[in-house]
Every structure is written in structure tokens, then in C-alpha cells.
């Protein structure tokens, strides 16, 4: 393909005695006019190429039917008020609603569709006060992580002109019981602070409503360590304030105090373990993987909070991983994963089993959402072939009723889901879900899309994905591999895929591809791989390590230069997960798999569609730019390499439905073309119900 020209510079660093070439370093400076011109030409070239691919009209029609739907989330109850979100068939973004009492009149609270005339904005995590009179919410320009915190009066719908807080990138709002103020994490917006150092400047503050935020009191100073996160929490009764210092996703220290106290008290110093604390009626419930890779629960008396005095309430289950705990209706609600499918269990506050919540089927469910002293609770459920359903349950009786469900134009009975277990390179058994239309013939010809993530304790659960339906209707298989590095089997599973063990993740992924071919589901030229963020690193490494296994690659908002990732965006916060090239031993590991540094001139790579965003302030888009430049300029590679840049979008992409349709059409039109899926099959996707 006649790509836009990209120059190559003779940039070579000597790192720990190793000569490291970096010919496209100039593409790191996004603000440079030359880089802006390069981005514009690459994106224009890609969109021209994608626009010519057949099957787009059918895909657009089908995705429009699937994405523009009416839906509702499980509600939050605050006082006698209920808060929830709805999507609408004729709206681009979800709207926040509220009502007095469960049968009250529904009223609009926050509508991001009309918030800004100048540039697109997104809502962050909105939090109602305990009396339901006010809601704090972050506004994020261009769907980026950077945010400004606002407060709205629920009765009047007026935004406070005083309670406007810049630097809310990491802000989690914790209201006081009287609703007169809240604690939040604050990050300075001082441009003189290097971007990679900013996380270490996070402080925990208290904001009193009506007070100039510049006068907000700092209740916990910054750590000064950009590889850490500082997070605050306040018990519902306001008696206990917590501060957690997280080192990555595997370890944290927890401090606590009464808000009026001056000094913090250490609850626990994390040494290779993580801790989550829920406080209720002068008791701490501590969820931890300390000595229990699949997690367990302790009770702690604040007056005798030393570790030796902790009482185990819920022991570790050796066959299921405890994902989360909530305190609802005077009970503990425990969300487990058992071979990557959800179980919801209820126990007394002393850990005595009461029941397992009846779920509609094998799939993914949220934990119970409710209040500590209210019997009614809600949870969401879905599966690969069942759209989201919201259920209400009585904690006391166990009764479960359907509260709301999403109507999607599809026939769930047309598809089937299969779970298989395959061996990785070192013999480890790895689970994988396969979704396809019933009647599939295992003759090795089915186009297959293999998805993975493998990091940060994130579990890839079998929830509904409307975007895969046109692929399934065209005779395709959708596969999700539950790789090491995730949290599916607890801390040990995560540890086996992080840091010095990261190569296990890539081996697990290659093992999935080999299994799919061996068992005659597909073959290499019909197998596409897809991943985003850490999953983008995954498919980048898969592509450069084992290019012969794959027929196409879709890579989204990725990390790909693992030698310099820690110098950009939020990179230093990921050092506990990956390591850092500043350390000689860790550099050796990172450089050994860094995809950007392993693009070779003599290799024919699979066709690549790189999907990037122009306002991604989490994973710097320099990764996507440099990798695409390297692959396009690999002289032995004839396959198309395309860079698509989403405008006005952050790490999660643009949050308008129309933009989601556009990106999905581009992705699947690309896959249909490069995998040579029959054009008539692509048309089937638009006509299926």
C-alpha cells in the first residue's frame, strides 16, 4: 500500500549495556506540527481505505439496530430517592434520572447529550449524597480521564457555581452523612509537574459545600511516589475515614482515623497482599488475599485493630475466587467466580452461609447493590447471548424478581456458548469461552475472532456483547481466552502473568490460537485477534512473536514501547504491574517482549488495524504511532497496516452511540475483507433476528 511517508531517524540509546534503536522517537511529540500532519495523513489514508471495503451498509444497519436500544441500570437508593441511568433509542449518551420513592415520577438529573455545545463531554462516576439531595459528578472533556468535579441540587437541577473542583482525574466522592461536604482525591493541574510524575502528587481533601475549593483542607498528604495511588473512603455513618496507598493492583497499605482526629492509624501494611475495608456499626470487614490467593474475609474491632486480633469470618474457597463483598440488608453479599462464571452467596455478618442467589443461567452478574439496613437489593445479569437484565431480590427471603431488561433485536436461542480448557506452553490449563451459531461445522473454515486481556487482576467474564452478533451471524466464532495476569483464579493467576512472568500471558494466547486450529474450529488465515489497552500490548506481542498463527490483528489504544512506557501518560502507575526499564533486570524482561522493538524487516505480518484516540491521557497514543510506523516500513511486509484515530475521544473511545457504530463498522468491514469472509455472509448480519 502507498502509505504516507514516515521518516526514520538514527536514534540509538545504550541501556544497561544494550543498544536500543528507536527510529520513530520523533512521533512521541504529538504537539509538533510534523507529527500532527503525519497523524492527519495516516488517519485520512486509513478512512479512505476502510470506506472502500464492502459490506459496510449491511453492518451499519445492523449495528444501528443493536446499539440504539432502551435500557436501565440497577438503581441506587439514597434516603427515599432512587437514582439510575437510562439509554434511549434516540439518544447518543446515557441519562441520569431520579425519582422520589420507587413509584415516583421519573425526572432527568444529568443529561450529557446537552451539557456542552462546543465540545463533547462525558460523565464520570456520579455519587448522590446519603440524603439524596445532591449529587457530585465529574465532567470529562472529550471522554478523557482529566475531569472537573461539580455538584448539582437534585430538587432544583441547578449546578453549584462555587463547588467546582479542577484536578478531579482520580476523584472518588465520599459524602458525609449530613450531606454538607465530601472527601475526594485531588490532583494538581500545574503544567510544570511532569505528566509521568503527577500521580505522586495526589492528595486526599475535604470539601465543605459553598466553600471555595482553593481552601479545601488536605487530610492526607501526597505520597511523592508516582507508582502509587492514594484513595480515600468514609464509612456511611461518618465515623471512620480510610486512606489506602496502592502499589499497583496487588498490594496496598490501609490507614484509618476518626475524621476529627489529627493522626492516622495504621490498620495493615500490605506486604504482597491487598486489602479492602467496609465499616459498619463499629466493625471493619476486611477482604484480603493475604495468605489466601482467592481471598477471604475478616472482622476487625477498631478498638483492637492489631493484625493478631483479626477474626476470620469467611475462609478462602479453594474452588472459587472472591471478586467483591458488599454489606446489604444486614448480611454479607459475596460475588464469586467459579471457573469464570458468577456465583452470588449470602452469609450472616458472622460469615454463616445463608443461601446462593438464584441466577437466570450461567453468565456474569454484579454483586448486590443496596444499603446496609435495607432488605431490597438489585443485581445485573447477562451472558454472551443474554442482554443485560436487572433483578430485585429480598436479602431476608431470597425472593428474586425481574426488575428490568434490555430488549435487543436478536434470537438468543440461535447461538450457543461453550467453555473449553486448553494447555499453554508450560502445561497450565487455561479456560476459554467460544460463542457461535448453532449448527457450526468444525471443519477449520470458520472465521474466528480471539479476544484477550491478561493483566491487572481483570477477569474476562462471559457478559453480553452486542457488537459480536453480526460476526456470529456471518458464521464466525467469538473466543475469549481467560489468560494468566487476570483475576479469574485469584492472586496466583495474576502473579503468574505480571512482571517477570509476563511472557506467560503471550504464551497462553498463542496456545489458544493453536488449540482453535488443532480442534478444527478455524485455521491461521481465518483467525483474527483483538485487544485494547493492556490487551493491545497482548496482540502486539502476539503479532511480533508468532505472526504465522494469525490472519488479522485489531489493536486498540495499546502499550507497545515497553522501554519508554513509564515516561508517558499514567505509565509510572503501571510499573508495579510491568516493571521499569530503569531497572537493569526488569529492562531485560521488558525489552525481550516489547512489540515496537521486535518489528523485523524480513517478516510478513498479518494485516493490522490500529485503533487510537486523540485525547487518550491514560495510554499515550505515541505507542500506536511508533508501532504503525515500524510495521509500515518493514520492507518484507506486504499486508495492510492502517492507523485509525478517533477524534474527541479518550482511552475508552468516544462515548456517543454513533461513534461506536462507526468504529465497529470499520473494524468488522476490515475483518471481513482481510479474512476473505464471503460477501453474502456479511449481508446475513444485517438481516438476522
Automatic annotation (TrEMBL):
Residues 464-676 form the Peptidase S9 prolyl oligopeptidase catalytic domain. GO terms for molecular function: oligopeptidase activity; serine-type endopeptidase activity. Residues 4-405 form the Peptidase S9A N-terminal domain. Keywords: Hydrolase, Protease, Serine protease. PROSITE patterns: PRO_ENDOPEP_SER (PS00708). One of its GO terms (biological process) is proteolysis. It holds the Pfam family Peptidase_S9_N. It catalyses: Hydrolysis of Pro-|-Xaa >> Ala-|-Xaa in oligopeptides. PANTHER family: PROLYL ENDOPEPTIDASE. Belongs to the peptidase S9A family. This is prolyl oligopeptidase.
Amino acid at each position: 500500500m502507498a502509505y504516507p511517508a514516515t521518516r526514520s531517524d538514527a536514534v540509538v540509546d545504550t541501556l544497561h549495556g544494550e543498544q536500543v534503536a528507536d527510529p520513530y522517537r520523533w512521533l512521541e511529540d504529538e504537539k509538533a506540527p510534523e507529527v500532527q500532519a503525519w497523524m492527519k495523513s495516516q488517519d485520512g489514508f486509513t478512512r479512505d481505505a476502510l470506506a472502500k471495503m464492502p459490506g459496510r451498509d449491511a453492518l451499519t444497519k445492523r449495528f444501528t439496530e443493536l446499539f440504539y436500544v432502551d435500557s436501565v441500570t440497577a438503581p441506587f437508593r439514597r434516603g427515599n430517592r432512587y437514582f439510575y441511568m437510562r439509554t434511549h433509542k434516540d439518544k447518543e449518551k446515557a441519562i441520569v434520572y431520579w425519582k422520589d420513592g420507587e413509584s415516583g415520577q421519573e425526572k432527568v438529573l444529568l443529561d450529557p447529550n446537552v451539557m456542552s455545545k462546543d465540545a463533547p463531554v462525558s460523565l464520570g462516576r456520579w455519587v448522590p449524597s446519603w440524603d439524596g439531595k445532591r449529587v457530585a459528578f465529574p465532567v470529562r472533556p472529550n471522554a478523557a480521564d482529566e475531569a472537573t468535579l461539580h455538584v448539582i441540587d437534585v430538587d432544583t437541577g441547578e449546578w453549584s457555581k462555587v463547588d467546582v473542583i479542577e484536578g478531579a482525574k482520580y476523584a472518588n466522592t465520599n459524602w458525609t452523612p449530613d450531606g454538607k461536604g465530601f472527601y475526594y482525591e485531588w490532583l494538581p493541574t500545574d503544567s510544570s509537574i511532569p505528566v509521568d510524575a503527577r500521580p505522586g502528587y495526589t492528595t486526599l481533601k475535604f470539601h465543605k459545600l459553598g466553600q471555595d475549593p482553593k481552601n479545601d483542607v488536605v487530610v492526607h498528604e501526597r505520597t511523592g511516589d508516582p507508582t502509587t495511588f492514594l484513595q480515600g473512603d468514609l464509612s456511611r455513618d461518618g465515623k471512620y475515614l480510610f486512606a489506602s496507598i496502592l502499589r499497583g493492583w496487588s498490594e496496598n497499605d490501609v490507614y484509618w482515623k476518626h475524621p476529627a482526629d489529627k493522626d492516622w492509624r495504621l490498620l495493615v501494611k500490605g506486604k504482597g497482599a491487598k486489602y479492602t475495608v467496609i465499616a459498619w456499626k463499629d466493625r471493619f470487614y476486611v477482604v484480603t488475599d493475604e495468605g489466601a490467593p482467592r481471598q477471604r474475609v475478616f472482622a476487625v474491632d477498631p478498638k483492637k485493630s492489631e493484625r493478631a486480633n483479626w477474626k476470620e469470618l469467611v475462609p478462602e474457597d479453594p474452588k472459587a475466587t472472591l471478586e467483591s463483598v458488599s454489606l446489604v440488608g444486614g448480611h454479607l453479599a459475596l460475588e464469586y467466580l467459579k471457573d469464570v462464571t458468577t456465583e452470588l452467596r449470602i452469609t450472616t455478618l458472622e460469615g454463616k452461609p445463608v443461601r446462593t442467589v438464584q441466577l437466570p443461567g450461567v453468565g456474569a452478574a454484579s454483586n448486590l447493590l443496596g444499603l446496609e439496613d435495607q432488605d431490597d437489593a438489585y443485581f445485573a445479569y447477562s451472558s454472551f447471548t443474554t442482554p443485560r437484565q436487572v433483578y430485585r431480590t429480598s436479602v431476608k427471603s431470597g425472593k428474586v424478581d425481574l426488575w428490568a431488561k434490555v430488549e435487543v433485536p436478536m434470537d438468543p436461542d440461535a447461538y450457543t456458548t461453550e467453555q473449553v480448557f486448553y494447555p499453554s506452553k508450560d502445561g497450565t490449563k487455561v479456560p476459554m469461552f467460544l460463542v457461535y451459531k448453532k449448527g457450526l461445522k468444525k471443519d477449520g473454515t470458520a472465521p474466528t475472532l480471539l479476544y484477550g486481556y491478561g493483566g491487572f487482576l481483570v477477569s474476562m467474564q462471559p457478559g453480553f456483547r452486542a457488537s459480536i452478533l453480526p460476526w456470529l451471524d456471518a458464521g464466525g466464532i467469538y473466543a475469549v481466552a481467560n489468560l494468566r495476569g487476570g483475576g479469574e483464579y485469584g492472586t496466583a493467576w495474576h502473579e503468574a502473568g505480571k512482571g517477570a512472568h509476563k511472557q506467560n500471558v503471550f504464551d497462553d494466547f498463542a496456545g489458544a490460537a493453536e488449540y482453535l486450529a488443532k480442534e478444527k474450529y478455524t485455521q491461521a488465515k481465518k483467525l483474527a485477534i483483538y485487544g485494547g489497552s493492556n490487551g493491545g500490548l497482548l496482540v502486539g506481542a502476539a503479532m511480533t512473536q508468532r505472526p504465522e498463527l494469525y490472519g488479522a490483528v485489531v489493536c486498540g489504544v495499546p502499550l507497545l514501547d515497553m522501554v519508554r512506557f513509564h515516561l508517558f501518560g499514567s505509565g509510572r502507575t503501571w510499573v508495579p504491574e510491568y516493571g521499569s526499564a530503569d531497572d537493569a533486570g526488569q529492562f531485560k524482561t521488558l525489552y525481550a517482549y516489547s512489540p515496537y522493538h521486535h518489528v523485523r524487516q524480513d517478516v510478513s505480518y498479518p494485516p493490522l488495524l490500529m485503533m487510537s484516540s486523540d485525547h487518550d491521557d491514560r495510554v499515550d497514543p505515541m505507542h500506536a504511532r511508533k508501532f504503525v510506523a515500524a510495521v509500515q516500513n518493514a520492507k518484507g511486509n506486504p499486508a495492510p497496516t492502517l492507523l485509525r484515530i478517533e477524534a474527541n475521544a479518550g482511552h475508552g473511545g468516544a462515548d456517543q452511540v454513533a461513534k461506536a457504530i462507526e468504529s465497529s463498522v470499520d473494524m468488522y468491514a476490515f475483518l471481513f475483507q482481510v479474512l476473505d469472509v464471503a460477501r453474502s455472509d456479511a449481508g446475513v448480519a444485517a438481516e438476522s433476528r
